[in-house]
Amino acid sequence: MAHYISRASLQNPLRLSNLARTRWIITFATNTPHRKMSASASPNNNYEYIITSRPEPNVLLIQLNRPKALNALCSPLFRELNQALKDADKDDTVGAMVLTGSERAFAAGADIKEMKDKQFADVYKNKFLEDWADITKISKPIIAAVSGYALGGGCELALMCDIILASPSAKFGQPEINLGVIPGGGGSQRLAQVIGKSRAMEMVLTGRTISAEEADKWGMISRIVGEGEGQVVKEAVAMAKEISGKSQIAVQAGKEVVNEAYEMTLAEGLKYERRIFHSLFATNDQKEGMAAFAEKRKANFTHS
Question: Which pLDDT does position 162 carry in this prediction?
Answer without folding.
Answer: 98
